[in-house]
Amino acid sequence: MIRQMTPQYEGFDIQVIVADMQESLDQIGSFGEGGYDVVISRGGTARLLAMHAKVPVVEIQVSGFDVLRMLTLMKEHQAKIRLIGFPNIIQSFVSVSNLLDYDFPYTVINGESEVENALVEAKRDGVQVIVGDTVTVRFANELGMQGVLITSGRESVSEAFRTAELIFRSLDEHKKTNRIYERMLKEIGREAAVLDGSLQVLFATDGIQSLWGKRSGQTSFPYRVEEGGLLGGLLEDAAADIRENGPLTLYEPARRITLTVRLLNAADRSEIYLLTLEHGEHPWAGIRVVDPNRDADTFPSFFHATGVMDQTLQNAKSQVQAGDPVAVCGEHGAGKRIFADALAALMGKDVRVIEVEIGDGDEAAFRRLCHLVSVAERGALLHVRGFERFPAVLQRKIADIIKGKTRKVLFSFDEHPKRLKLEIRMDAKVLDWLSRGAIELKPLRERLNELEEYVRAFISMFNEKYGKQIVGVRPEVWELLRARTWPGNLIELRDTMEEAVREAQGEYIERVDVEMKADAAVTPVLSAGIPAFDLNRSLDEIERDIIRYVLEEEGMNQSKAAKRLKINRTTLWRKVKGEE
After folding, report:
1. Residue 327 and residue 440: Cα distance in Å, rounded?
2. Residue 77 C-beta-side C-alpha neighbours within 13 Å
3. What are the residues facing 288 on neighbouring strands?
4. Phi–psi pair at 367, nearest 5 degrees
5. Vertex 183, ends 178 and 184: CA angle to 5°?
6. Strands 200-204 and 191-196
7. What is the pTM of this model?
8. What are phi and psi of 102, to 5 degrees?
9. Are 518 and 485 in contact (CB under 8 A)?
10. Angle value at C-alpha 553, between 552 and 557, nearest 5 degrees
């Protein structure tokens, strides 16, 4: 009938597929990918398709005319008849047969699996004719009964096509609007994605999709975000946290990208996550989550390679599994992140690192950290940086939350705990609690005996990345590397070796390959006898470094240090605390 009616639907590109309920499931995957806009079907098959198809499904109804035609055909039948069908079919027949005062026996089914039992029972009752849909009629014929198919007339088919056309027009308008929004995002250079509460990606620009390993134009929406990944794990049950404490910031240091997650309320009051992506460092406050995995993957397993930290890692593992936190201190780039990653790996392949960095130690940051501490109970090692930025009262509260629990927490500091205590940036009791098993990572300049192992590991890694076959470095290069002070520690060494491997033309790294990088990395000396400061840090951090240097020279006497810096003692105290 539909094929005969096709010429009257010039605006439709119609394909007819003949299939019952089970057979339709084999076809369903191709509906969305095949470019179909609407599927038209009937009865139980229509309802089944509506549950699984990614495009709208219009059901061909059994109209009053269809029921009248069937009743007219069946009422003079001498054989025993029974109607077997889904509720919507049965209801139509019952309503019309009651009006006509005609008793039409029936059995209601709710799924295809019920058909066979209903037919066996009907045959046992002496029923000879079965009225039903395609599946029912087929089974009836197999059992030796006559099957009569309920058909839909032209008016029912025409109504289904009218409905399909209305749906298509409405969806097409929405698609046009969405395409405008997509073009706007691309024109302004903003990478964004929208997720629903079940973490299904409803829309994402190409840049964000590439982060998840999805290729542009080859992925249909919706799909599940980062199965088992850090973002997916953080967003589970995170709506209340984001609603109370503001956007969640996720930073990936290896690619220097920041992902910000906001919570939007849709018109139907459902919760929608909006993700925006920005490149480079961006101002942030409160607290941000750092995804260390890709950055950690760029470092070989140094601690195991040299063997010097294996016992320390074992002790840290025992400490964390006993419910006590671990504190690690060391200069920037000394390997605190590597230590956290190695510790998580030692604790089990399913233990992942969630690194959080405290910016402003305010109440919102405190509440968010408390939420993340609870996440650490579910197979995660929580790595907290910048804990000293919280005021003492909040430090004590967080310590009380962690004590006596099974949470796995590691605190790391860029400075030694003794300095934090002298500068009154840590609560004394909290610091004593953390210092019981404190681990100090020496700067690279104090463990140059490990330098060769690190260099060779980096050469192997960057050989693979750049398709090189470097086998070693020249003797004069070793002299140059050992003479460096390495203020950036392992990070600076990694960057130096990456550039050297990339620039090397032969099988050995030559002096010229590292001299340019070395020259660029040297921080100028301020004056004779005064150590160089890392000028790549923020102005506030450089200022604090200078204040600490002066304090140390004055024996931590704040009055003398303030006089030398030409500021009053109150201002000095506030700067040391990071309040100015």
Report:
1. 9
2. 20
3. 249, 357
4. -65, -40
5. 95
6. antiparallel
7. 0.62
8. -125, 125
9. no
10. 65
Per-residue pLDDT of the chain (580 residues; tens, 9 = 90+): 888 888 888 888 898 888 776 777 777 766 656 678 899 988 778 878 888 887 899 998 888 888 888 888 877 777 888 999 888 778 888 888 888 888 788 899 887 788 889 999 999 999 999 988 877 888 899 888 998 888 888 888 999 999 999 999 998 888 887 777 777 766 766 788 888 888 888 888 877 877 777 766 556 677 777 655 667 777 776 788 888 888 888 888 777 788 888 888 755 667 888 888 888 777 777 888 887 655 455 555 555 555 667 888 888 998 888 878 899 999 988 889 889 988 888 888 778 888 999 988 888 889 989 888 877 666 788 999 999 999 999 999 999 988 867 778 999 998 887 778 777 888 888 988 887 778 999 999 998 988 988 898 899 889 988 889 999 999 999 999 999 889 889 888 988 999 999 989 999 999 888 875 554 444 444 444 445 555 656 677 778 778 877 877 776 777 778 778 878 776 777 776 665 5
Query: What DSSP letter does each residue of 190-225 carry, written as one string?
Result: -EEEEEETT-EEEEE-HHHHHHTTPPTTS-PSPEES
- Identify the sign of the CA torsion 527, 530, 536, 538: negative
Q: On the CB side of 554, how many CA atoms lie within 13 Å of its CA? A: 16
Residue type, 409: V
Q: Are 334 and 360 in contact (CB under 8 A)?
A: no
Q: What is the DSSP string of 152-163?
A: --HHHHHHHHHH
Cβ density class 382-402: b for 16+ within 10 Å, e for less:
bbbbbbbbbebebbeebbeeb
Contacts of 160 (CB under 8 A, 6+ apart): 40, 58, 59, 60, 61
